[in-house]
């Protein structure tokens, strides 16, 4: 059997996922960059901002569960169409808001729409890539999250300075509709894609070990049945313990640099650009590492777990960020942590497709990602309380140090829990 197929159409699909994720995070990131401007205009406290973030998180969590189920039912093409229309409209609607409550409402709508991105994208990867390439493909499309976060600190201050905060939401929100045109033109599942060669189709399905035995086997799997498997809980705990750390990096990192090192967020923020650029390297490199181990002959579970342990260890040094005496020392430590997070993320998403058949992947990703979003929903309570308490006492940096220490140990804890739940990540047989 050929190891390298003559066609590469699957990488065009991966590019579409990459750009969708870029837009997803561009729309998500703006609120953190505009926080000083909006807080000044609408008189937000740290608690007000925390509640706005929680509105996004709550709807994102609900949406993940709903979209995970919906995409398994209606398919990946239509699933993405529904998702991006909702989130792009919601992103643009921020420009119409005039109250703090209004921001909570539109952030909730944004969270609901954006929740469709990852359950759909992971299912697309499972449809279009053999297992030995899935972590690499996931790492590549997942790096779009970082590109969106890199572009935002440059683009948003530029638009803010010339056109105002409303136009920043309108311009970035409209980009989703441009992507939608390309998705409709270029995407279809492999069995229906006429541009896909027979050789590449065979390669995509070269390591499939799941067999459809009857028409009944094609039916959707219930959430209650999925929750009976330890493999589902592996994904749930892995996401729940680590996703909140990424939300912190996304929504509070700009204000951390501003309050600690007097970073001017009305200008292009190069420290943020460097941090999120590093996370791009982590996402692609993390996906490549476990795929490289597999190509070297390692069992899939060993490749994933070894890689994820290395990435968990790489987050730990962030606990010494409190000793940073200038902004670039902090940038270096945080860059390592966010790079390790995205490397971890590329692999944990792939574990779902390693352990579950395609018909259940979006549902499992939705359940686990909802757990991660719920963790992200409650973590802002901790962050807001710690920061506001220490801010009132005149020690805001102490608050950030406590949060960094919490982040540093989260991944090792998650790895240990995942390991004991499913040491070898045995694939699930849903026909039993």
TrEMBL record:
Membrane topology: Multi-pass membrane protein
Location relative to the cell: Membrane
Transmembrane segments: 78-97, 163-186, 233-253, 273-294, 306-324, 361-379, 399-422
UniProt keyword Transmembrane, yes or no: yes
Major facilitator superfamily (MFS) profile domain residues: 13-426
Coiled coil regions, renumbered to chain: none
SUPFAM superfamilies linked: MFS general substrate transporter
UniProt keywords, alphabetically: Membrane, Transmembrane, Transmembrane helix
UniProt KW Transcription regulation keyword: no
Protein name: MFS transporter
């Amino acid at each position: 059997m050929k190891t390298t197929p003559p066609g590469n159409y699957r990488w065009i699909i991966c590019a579409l996922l990459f750009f969708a994720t870029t837009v997803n995070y561009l729309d998500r990131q703006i609120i953190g960059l505009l926080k000083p401007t909006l807080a000044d205009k609408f008189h937000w406290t740290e608690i007000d901002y925390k509640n706005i973030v929680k509105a996004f998180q709550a709807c994102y969590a609900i949406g993940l569960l709903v979209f995970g189920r919906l995409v398994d039912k209606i398919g990946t093409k239509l699933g993405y169409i529904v998702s991006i229309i909702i989130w792009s409209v919601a992103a643009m609607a921020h420009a119409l808001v005039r109250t703090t409550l209004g921001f909570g409402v539109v952030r909730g709508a944004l969270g609901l729409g954006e929740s469709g991105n990852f359950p759909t994208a992971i299912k697309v990867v499972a449809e279009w890539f053999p297992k030995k390439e899935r972590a690499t493909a996931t790492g590549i499309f997942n790096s779009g999250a970082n590109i969106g976060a890199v572009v935002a600190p440059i683009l948003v201050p530029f638009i803010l300075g010339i056109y105002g905060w409303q136009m920043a939401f309108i311009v970035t929100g409209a980009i989703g509709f441009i992507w939608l045109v390309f998705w409709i033109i270029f995407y279809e599942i492999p069995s229906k894609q006429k541009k896909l060669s027979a050789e590449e189709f065979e390669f995509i399905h070269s390591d499939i070990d799941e067999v459809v035995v009857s028409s009944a086997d094609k039916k959707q799997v219930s959430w209650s049945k999925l929750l009976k498997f330890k493999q589902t809980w592996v994904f749930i705990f892995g996401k729940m313990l680590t996703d909140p750390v990424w939300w912190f990096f996304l929504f509070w990192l700009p204000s951390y640099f501003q309050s600690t090192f007097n970073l001017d967020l009305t200008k292009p923020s190069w420290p943020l650009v460097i941090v999120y650029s590093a996370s791009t390297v982590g996402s692609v490199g993390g996906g490549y590492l476990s795929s490289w181990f597999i190509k070297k002959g390692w069992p899939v579970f060993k490749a994933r777990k070894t890689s994820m342990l290395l990435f968990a260890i790489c987050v730990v040094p962030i606990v010494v960020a409190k000793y940073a005496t200038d902004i670039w020392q902090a940038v270096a430590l945080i860059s390592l942590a966010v790079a390790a997070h995205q490397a971890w993320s590329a692999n944990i998403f792939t574990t779902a497709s390693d352990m579950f058949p395609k018909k259940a992947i979006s549902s499992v990703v939705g359940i686990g990602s909802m757990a991660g979003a719920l963790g992200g929903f409650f973590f802002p309570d901790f962050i807001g309380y710690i920061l506001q308490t220490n801010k009132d006492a005149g020690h805001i940096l102490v608050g950030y140090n406590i949060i960094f220490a919490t982040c540093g140990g989260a991944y090792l804890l998650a790895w240990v829990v995942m390991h004991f739940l499913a040491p070898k990540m045995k694939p699930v047989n849903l026909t039993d």
